[in-house]
Automatic annotation (TrEMBL):
InterPro entries: C-type_lectin-like, C-type_lectin-like/link_sf, CTDL_fold, VWF_A, vWFA_dom_sf. Residues 554-667 form the C-type lectin domain. It comes from Pristionchus fissidentatus. It comes from the Eukaryota. This is C-type lectin. Pfam families: Lectin_C, VWA. PANTHER family: C-TYPE LECTIN (PTHR31024), C-TYPE LECTIN-RELATED (PTHR31024:SF3). The lineage of its organism: Eukaryota, Metazoa, Ecdysozoa, Nematoda, Chromadorea.
Length: 678
C-alpha cells in the first residue's frame, strides 16, 4: 500500500481559508483523488472557480474547481496533487463568505453536495457515498430495502485515520432512518445486498424535525478537520414526532468530547403544556443510555469557541427512538462506536489530572538559564517543574513511581539533580550572562543521567523549557533517542523568536509555544508519553494532538505463518491476543501494517471463530461490525476467519480452513498509568 502523507499539512479535508494556505505554501497532497463541493450560491461560469485549479502529479493535468465540481472527484495516476492559480492575488482575494470544501482521498467514493433543496440518490451494493455541505449541517433520510446489514458512518473522507477519516459508528437501517450530522462531510458505507434510497439536504447548525415517525441518528465530529458549522449560529435540533402526546424518547449512544475546549451536549424534554421540562446535565464523555418522557425533545450542541470549532476533537453518535408513553418497554440497540477496549486513561476530570500519582516515567528537565531567558522566565520555568514534580510519586518502593533529573543550560550544561537521590524542591536556578543556551550540551548531559541510572521499562522523556539555542550543530543523538522510544517535549518560551532546532527537536505533538502554568495540561502531556507499546510492538493511535500513543492498542506481525489454533496459542503464550477487528479504521490499519512488511494481498487470521451456531470473537466482543466478502461467511470453506486485501484499498473477510497456514498479528494493551509493563 502507498504510504500517504501531506507535506506541510495535517488534514485531508479543507475549508476555503485553508485552501488559500495550500496555494501560498505550494503544498503537495499525496492521495489518488481530488474532490470539491461548492456552496450552492457559488457560480461556476466565472470568478475564482474558473481561476483556481487542481494540478495532478504529472504537472500536465489541470482541472478548474468549476470543472471538478460537476464531477465531484477526479483521479490522479501519480497519486499527488497541488492547488494552483494564475490570479494576481495568488488566491488571497477569494471570497470565503461563499464556503466550499476540498477533499483528498485514496478511497473512491460518490460525492454528493447537500444543498437547501432536497435531492435523491439510489445506492446499490457495497457502495461508498460521501455527503458534503460546505457550511456544515447535513440531513439524510434513508429508505432501506432487502438488507439486514448495518450502515457504517464516518466523518470526513479517506483511507481511515491516516487521511483524517474517522469511524462514527454503525446502525441497522430499518425501513426508514433519519440522520443528522453537525459536520461538513460524512461518508457512508452501504450494505453489500439490497439497496437504499436517500433524500438529503444541507441545513446549517439549526434543525427542527416535525412529524418524524421513525428513528433518528444524531452525530457530530471535528476529528477530520471539518468545520462543523462554524460561526455563532446555534447548534440545535428539535424533534417533534408524529405520534400522540406523552412520549418516551429512548436515547442510546456515546459522547467523547474534546477536553481542551469543554464542549457538551444537553438534552431538554418538554411538554406542550409547558408543565414538564427535564434538562440533563451537560454530557461530555460517557456512554449514553436514557429515557426521557415528554412531547418534544431538544438537543443542544454547546460549543465554546464557535469560530474555531473545526479545531476540536469531539465525536458523538447516538440513536433516538420515540414510543407512546403507554407502549410496552422495548430494548433499543445502541449504535456501536469504534473499539475502545484500550485507553491511555489520560482524560482530565473537571480539568484535573487525577492520574498523576500513577505516572511512571524517567524525566529529565532541561532549563535554559541564559540571558535570553531572563530571571522572570527562569522563575516561572522552575515553578512549572516544582508543580509537576509535586504531583508525581517519587517513592521508589511504590508500584508506580517516577524518577526526575534536572539540567541547567547556558553556554555550558550543569547537572543539578540526577536519579541517584530524591529530587529536591523548591528548584532554585539563577540566570547567567551567557547570550544563549547550548541545548546540545544540555541534551548530552540528560542522556548521561539516563545512562548512569539503573535500567527499567519506564519511558524516558526529556522536557526542554528554553528561549534560545546557541548549539553550533544539530543534535545527532536526538534521532537515535527518539528511535529507541524516547520522547522530547519542548516548550519554547519566546515564540516570536522561533528557534528551528527547538521545533525540530520535539517529538510529534510535543512542541508547545504557550508558556503557561497549567500543570494539569503538562501532566496530560506526560500521561500521553506514558502510553506506549512494549519493544517490538507498533502503536495504532487516533492521532490526537499528533502524539503517537498506544490508545488503540499495540500490534506485532509474527515472522512465521501458522494454522489458526497455533497462531492463536502463540499470541496467548506471549501475553497477547490474536488480533480482532471491530471497526473500519482498525481493518485498514491492519491491512496496511501487514502490507508494509510482506507486501499487498497477504491473508492473515483474525480472532473470529464459528462455534457451530454463530461466529464468535475471541475477545468476547458483540460488535456488529462486519467485513465479510461476497457470499461469505461460507462455513463449507472453514470455521476460522481471515482478512485479505482484495483490490486497491479494499479488503474483506473470508471463512477458511483452520488447518491452513496464514500470516497473523498479535495485539496487546499499551503500557499506561494503569498497566505497568515489565
Amino acid at each position: 500500500l502507498l504510504l500517504l502523507c501531506a507535506v506541510g499539512s495535517d488534514a485531508f479535508t479543507y475549508t476555503c481559508n485553508e485552501v488559500k494556505e495550500l496555494i501560498r505554501k505550494n503544498t503537495t497532497i499525496y492521495a489518488g483523488n481530488a474532490c470539491i463541493a461548492l456552496d450552492e450560491f457559488i457560480p461556476t461560469d466565472s470568478g475564482f472557480t474558473t481561476e483556481v485549479y487542481f494540478l495532478d502529479g504529472t504537472g500536465r493535468g489541470r482541472y478548474s474547481f468549476a470543472q471538478v465540481s460537476t464531477l465531484g472527484c477526479i483521479p490522479s495516476s501519480l497519486n499527488s496533487w497541488k492547488i494552483v492559480t494564475e490570479r494576481e492575488d495568488e488566491g488571497e482575494g477569494i471570497d470565503c463568505s461563499y464556503e466550499f470544501t476540498v477533499l483528498f482521498s485514496s478511497m473512491e467514493t460518490h460525492l454528493i453536495t447537500a444543498k437547501g433543496d432536497s435531492m435523491h440518490h439510489r445506492s446499490y451494493q457495497a457502495y461508498n457515498m460521501t455527503v458534503v455541505n460546505p457550511r456544515g449541517g447535513i440531513l439524510i433520510d434513508f429508505s432501506c430495502n432487502n438488507t439486514q446489514q448495518p450502515l457504517h458512518f464516518y466523518t470526513g473522507l479517506g483511507n481511515g485515520a491516516s487521511e483524517q477519516m474517522y469511524y462514527y459508528g454503525s446502525s441497522k437501517c430499518d425501513e426508514r432512518l433519519t440522520v443528522f450530522a453537525w459536520d461538513t462531510a460524512i461518508t457512508i458505507n452501504t450494505p453489500d445486498n439490497g439497496y437504499i434510497l436517500i433524500t438529503y439536504w444541507g441545513t446549517g447548525g439549526y434543525l427542527s424535525l416535525g412529524s418524524v415517525s421513525y428513528d433518528v441518528l444524531l452525530m457530530g465530529s471535528g476529528r477530520s478537520s471539518n468545520i462543523v458549522q462554524h460561526g455563532d449560529e446555534d447548534k440545535f435540533i428539535w424533534l417533534s414526532p408524529s405520534l400522540s402526546d406523552d412520549l418516551k424518547f429512548h436515547v442510546d449512544g456515546f459522547a467523547d468530547m474534546d477536553s481542551k475546549l469543554g464542549n457538551s451536549l444537553v438534552f431538554t424534554a418538554k411538554c406542550k403544556e409547558n408543565n414538564c421540562t427535564e434538562t440533563t446535565a451537560p454530557i461530555t464523555d460517557r456512554d449514553i443510555h436514557m429515557v426521557l418522557e415528554a412531547d418534544f425533545l431538544a438537543v443542544n450542541y454547546n460549543t465554546k469557541v464557535a469560530d474555531d470549532q473545526w479545531k476540536d476533537d469531539d465525536l458523538f453518535f447516538m440513536r433516538i427512538a420515540s414510543t407512546p408513553l403507554d407502549a410496552p418497554e422495548v430494548t433499543v440497540a445502541p449504535p456501536v462506536k469504534a473499539n475502545t477496549d484500550y485507553s491511555c486513561n489520560c482524560d482530565l476530570v473537571n480539568g484535573k489530572a487525577d492520574f498523576s500519582s500513577d505516572l511512571w516515567l524517567d524525566i529529565v528537565f532541561l532549563i535554559d538559564v541564559s540571558h535570553a531567558m531572563g530571571a522572570e522566565k527562569i522563575n516561572k520555568a522552575t515553578a512549572v517543574v516544582d508543580s509537576i514534580v509535586a504531583s508525581l510519586t517519587l517513592d521508589t518502593q511504590s508500584p508506580r513511581f517516577s524518577r526526575v533529573g534536572l539540567v541547567a543550560v547556558s553556554n555550558k550544561a550543569e547537572v543539578i539533580d540526577d536519579f541517584s537521590s530524591p529530587f529536591k524542591t523548591p528548584t532554585n536556578l539563577q540566570p547567567t550572562t551567557a547570550d544563549g543556551a547550548d541545548i546540545r550540551s544540555g541534551f548530552v548531559s540528560a542522556l548521561s543521567i539516563f545512562a548512569k541510572s539503573s535500567h527499567r521499562s519506564a519511558r524516558q522523556l526529556i522536557y526542554i523549557i528554553a528561549a534560545s539555542d546557541s548549539s553550533p550543530l544539530t543534535i545527532e543523538h536526538a534521532t537515535d533517542f527518539k528511535n529507541k522510544g524516547g520522547i522530547i517535549a519542548v516548550t519554547e518560551v519566546d515564540s516570536t523568536a522561533s528557534e528551528p532546532l527547538l521545533r525540530d527537536l520535539a517529538s510529534p505533538g510535543y512542541y508547545n509555544i504557550n508558556f503557561n502554568d497549567n500543570t494539569n495540561t503538562d501532566l496530560q502531556l506526560l500521561c500521553d508519553a506514558n502510553c506506549f507499546c512494549s519493544s517490538g510492538f507498533t502503536a495504532f493511535y487516533k492521532d490526537q494532538y499528533s502524539r503517537v500513543t498506544g490508545d488503540r492498542g499495540c500490534y506485532q506481525i509474527q515472522s512465521t505463518t501458522d494454522a489458526y489454533e497455533l497462531a492463536r496459542d502463540a499470541c496467548q503464550d506471549g501475553g497477547s491476543l490474536l488480533t480482532t477487528v471491530h471497526d473500519e479504521d482498525k481493518q485498514n490499519f491492519l491491512i496496511s501494517f501487514l502490507s508494509s512488511k510482506y507486501g499487498p494481498k497477504k491473508p492473515f487470521w483474525i480472532g473470529y471463530e464459528y462455534n457451530g451456531h454463530d461466529w464468535e470473537w475471541i475477545d468476547d466482543s458483540t460488535s456488529p461490525y462486519s467485513k465479510w466478502g461476497s457470499g461469505q461467511p461460507d462455513v463449507k470453506d472453514g470455521r476460522c476467519a481471515f482478512s485479505l486485501q482484495t483490490t486497491g484499498f479494499n479488503s474483506a473477510w473470508f471463512a477458511g480452513d483452520c488447518s491452513t497456514d496464514k500470516y497473523f498479528i498479535c495485539e496487546r494493551a499499551p503500557c499506561t498509568v494503569n498497566n505497568v509493563c515489565k
